[in-house]
Each structure stands twice: as C-alpha cells, then as structure tokens.
Amino acid sequence: MRTIIFSVLIFLDLLFLQLQAQTKKYAIHTVAFYNVENLFDTINNPTIRDDEWTPKGSRHWTSQRYFEKLDNLARVMSEIGMPENPNPPTFIGCAEIENRGVLEDLIKQPKLIDKEFGIIHFDSPDHRGIDVALLYQKKYFKPVTYSNIPLIIYKKPIVSTTDTINDKKKRVFTRDQLLVTGFLDGEEINIIVNHWPSRSGGEQKSSPYREAAGALNLKIIDSLQQINPNAKVITMGDFNDGPYNKSVKVALGAKANKADVPEFGVYNPFEDMAKKGMGTIAYRDSWDVFDQILVTESLIKSDFKSFQFWKSGIFNKSYLIQNSGKYRGYPLRHATTEVGFSDHFPVYIYLIKEKM
Question: Which of 40, 291, 311, 341 would suit a FRET pair with 80, their CA atoms being 20 to 30 Å apart?
C-alpha cells in the first residue's frame, strides 16, 4: 500500500513539474562546431600546401566542385539544432578552413545568406595552411574582443644553449586557439575554438602535443575566470582525442558528470556519448568523439535566469552518412567521384534562458 501511495506521489510531483515547465518560455541558442574537412578554394597559394586542391591537383578540385561543397556545408549548418531550435546555430566554430575567403563564400550560400553571419578568423602557422574560425549571427551576438593564442610545442626538448624559442626546426607548427569574448543578447559569453595537434606519428607519441593544447586551453579559461569569477566559457573543437584521453581528462580537467564539476571546473557532455559507442569520426570501423563542446561550471547552474547549458548532441542525419562501399556507415566525405560533406559529424549544444 505504501509503495502504491509513494508511486502516486511521485507521479503527481512529475505532473506538477511538467505543468509548471509548460508555463515558462525560454530563449534558446544553438552552439555548433564543425570540422568541414579541407575547405580549400581553387587558387594556388605558394605559401601553403594547397597544390592538390587546385584544378591541376590530385583532388581535381574545380570551381564547380568547390561550390557544390559550399552548398553541402550550408545545408548542414542551416539544419544543426533542429527541431528543438528551428533557427540555425547562433555560433558555428569551424576547423580545416584555408582562409577567410572560403568563409565569405560559405555564408553567402542561399541557405545561410539571410542569417547575416559574421566571421572571426586569423591565419595560423599550421603547415597545411588550415585554420579555425568562428561564425556568429550578428543580430544575437556582439563580439568585443578576439585573439589568436599560439600553441608553442616542440618535437623534442631544447637542450642546447644556442637553441631559442623561435627555432623553427624543432617547433611543431599547428593551429592557434581562437578566443572570442562578446555579448549574447546582452550577456557576456567567451568562446574558444580549437583544432588540436593530429595523431601523426601515432597516438601515444603525439599525445604530449595535445596535452599541451589542453593545458593552454585551461590557462585561457583560468585567465578569464581571474578577470571575472563568473565568466561563462565555451570551448569547442576537434581535439583529435576522445573525452577520456589525457589531454581532455587530465590537462583540461573535464568531468563527465555535472555533480563532479568543481567551482571554476569544466563539464564535458560528450563523454557520456563516447561511453555509449557514439562517435563523430570513424577509423578502421571504430568510432570516437574527437569533436566536442565543453562548458565551465558557470554554465551548468540550475537557475535559468541567465543563459545555461541545456543539452548536447551529434548531428548525424542520414544524408551525412556513406550508404555503400567499403566505408558504408562512415561520414560521407570528399572523394574523386563525389564531393560529399566531411569526415566528421558536427556537434552542438543548446543554451537556454528563461524569458521574464
């Protein structure tokens, strides 16, 4: 009898909460990240390695194929976050873009042009000539400051007194970390866009590079929190590591459970997805979650009077998936016979705030 009464009380409590929630309205913004995989124009730039991405190169990269890829990417970006939020993402972090010009072409595509996206981009020292960038809807977000923060790493320790920090022979040139601070509907938000060093040479051998990237990320977050202890920080990117690797778990100190996140700490909603076997990238029939969006403890409060994290997801609609051949089930990437989309699925989170 007590069990029945207890069950009824729980049901009534849940019903009350549901009815209460229905009376509240929330402002919602989607925050997305997408590694667009080799978004190069067709113009040869002698200062970077882009020869293969030209009409005479091995990729047979023509203007027609370039604009087909732009249209494909625009379709994806216009749909991320639906149906919970019919508006395209307010923020889209991008990786593997050649220059600002390709982003200017992208935001002019028919599926995006009416959203009036702004662009924040810096050229990075990456040896392939690929950069990170942030797209944002101008009507919602007003950037105030932005900077590119270099990751200084070396292939081996400097042991000679004649070596300097500018010794290009030893430095590993990779993507900078892009920091943007501004106001989302009048509320300060900080965003870091990342593309951490690859696993070239093997996961274990290259891990220290990504651990250094994680440490730099934490240093940026710490500096923001020293200025404002309540700083809301979103760090997103292709980390080339999963949520469980040292770069994310140790160097950045990300936690999988909200209850475990200390004050000023970092929450990673994508670790649970990785544990469930979900993924954003596939290799040798194994999935991993390299693409992640993490938030600081200030964004996981229970009070929604200001913007807070709601939930996260991987955007893996059927049209983004290879449906035949050796790589069936993988992300539908570029090939000589098909332009495709990317070898990564995009990821997203929602920020919500109760409307007063």
Answer: 40
Q: How far apart (Å, rounded) are the C-alpha atoms in residues 234 and 312? A: 13
In degrees, to the nearest 5, what angle opens at C-alpha 97 toward C-alphas 320 and 338?
40
Residue with tokens 């997103």: 236
Strands 308-314, 141-149: pairing is: unpaired
Instruction: Tell me the residue type at 6.
Output: F
Q: What SS3 state is found at 50?
A: coil
- Identify the band that residue 22 occupies on the pLDDT scale cut at 50, 70 and 90: low
Q: Distances from the Cα of 293 to the Cαs of 113, 193, 236, 264, 284, in angstroms? A: 25, 9, 4, 16, 25
Rounded CA-CA distance 260/82 in Å is 30
Written as six digits, the tokens of 125 are: 């020292």
Q: What is the DSSP string of 68-124?
A: HHHHHHHHHHHHTTTTT--SPPSEEEEEEE--HHHHHHHHTSTTTGGG-EEEEE---
Place of tokens 């991008």: 94
Where does the pLDDT of residue 10 fall: very low under 50, low under 70, confident under 90, or very high at 90 and above?
very low
